[in-house]
Amino acid sequence: HTHTHTHTHTNTHTHTQMAHAYTVPAAGDISKAGDGKSLLEHIVADVKALLAAKNCGPILIRLSWHDAGVFSNGSLKGGCPNAVMRFTDSGEGTFEANAGLTDVAIGLLKPIADKYVTAGVISNADLWALAANVAIEFMGGPHVVTRFGRPDAKDSGESVESQVGRLPDGDKGVSHLREVFAPKGFDDRDIVALSGGHTVGGCKQQRSGFDGLWTEAPLVFDNSYFTDLLEKTYRPETVEATGCPQHRSDKGTIMLISDLALLEDAAFKSVVEEYAADQSRFFADFVSAWTRLQENGVGDLLRDELAPPK
Fold it and tell me: Residue 127, exposed/middle/buried by CB under 10 A (0-12, 13-18, 19+)?
C-alpha cells in the first residue's frame, strides 16, 4: 500500500482515497474468489490493511468500548453493542463521550462496512467488535476471539438515555469507577485490566477536553500503562483551552484522575503492581474482561461462526 509509511492522523486522506486504498474484491465476488480465504479472513485482512495505512487502532478500540460499554444492570438498565452511534439525529450518536467516533472511527470503517455489511455478511456491531480485536492484536496485544450475532439498531431510538452513570468520567476517582463498572458485572481486577486499554492511544482536547498520550508508545499494546503509573511522577495541570484537570509526567505523557485512582485504592494498586510485573497476566485478565464487555446484553445471541446477521 502506498499509504503504509505515513504516520499522520486520520484526516489527512479523504474518504474516497481511503476507500480506494482497500478495494479488494467486492463482497459479491469474494464468496467465489477461490483464494481459499474465508469471508472472515477477508474482513480481517481489510481491517489490518486499514490499521497499517492509518494507525487508527486506538480509536477502533474506543468505538467498540463505547458501543458495548453503555450496558448496565444496576439502577440503570439495558444498553448493548448495537452500533446505534451510526445515527446522529439523537441518542448515543450525540453523546459528548462519543465525539470523534461518529465521524472519524465510523468513517474509517466505512469502506469495509460498505463492502461487507451492505452485502449482509456481518452486522455493523459485529464489525466494530471484530475491528477492535484485530487492532488489539495488530498493536502487539493478545488475541481476542470474536463471537458474532450482535443485531444492529434500526434507528437512534434504540439508544440508552444518557452516558451518565454508564460511561466513566476521566475526572473522577475510585468510587466512581466502581459505581460505573460494578453494574456491568466487573470487579476491581476487571476495572484495572480494562483501564489498561489506555496503554494505547491518547486524548484530544477537541473530543474529550483532555490532551495528550498515556504512554510513550501509543500504538503498542503492552503493559507500559502500569509500569508508567508506578515509575513516572505526574504533576497536576489544567488543559488551558478546556479547563479539564489532568496530570502530566516529565516525559510529556498524561494520566487522568481516573487513571491515578488505580494507585489510591489498595485493592486496585495491588493489581497495578501485578500487571506491571507480569504482562502475560495483564493480557489474560484483559481478554477475559474485554470479551465480557463486548458481549454484555447480547451473550445469548452470539455464536462462534461468522454468519449473516438475523
Answer: buried
DSSP string computed for 62-95:
HHHHHHHTT-EESSSEE-----GGG--SSGGGG-
- Of the listed 66, 143, 176, 247, which one is catalytic? 66
* Predicted structure pTM score: 0.90
The question of whether 15 is a catalytic residue gets the answer no
In angstroms, rounded to a whole number, what is the distance separating the alpha carbons of residues 128 and 151?
A: 12
Provide the grid cell at 138.
495488530
> Each residue of 254-277: pLDDT tens digit?
999 999 999 999 999 999 999 999
Q: How far apart are CA 158 and CA 70, in angstroms?
A: 12
Residues 108-130 have a mean pLDDT of: 97
Task: Kindly indicate the confidence band of residue 35, based on its pLDDT and cuts at 50, 70 and 90.
Answer: confident
Please provide the average confidence, as pLDDT, over all residues in the chain. Answer: 91
In angstroms, rounded to a whole number, what is the distance separating the alpha carbons of residues 76 and 164? 10
Instruction: Give the three cell numbers for residue 102.
Output: 461518529
Spatial separation of the C-alpha atoms in residues 105 and 121, rounded to whole Å: 20
pLDDT tens-digit profile of 154-195? 999 999 999 999 999 999 999 999 999 999 999 999 999 999
Answer for the pair 167, 79: CB distance below 8 angstroms, yes or no.
no
DSSP helix, strand, coil percent of the chain (3-state; round to 5) = 50, 5, 40
CA atoms of 29 and 7, how far apart (whole Å): 32
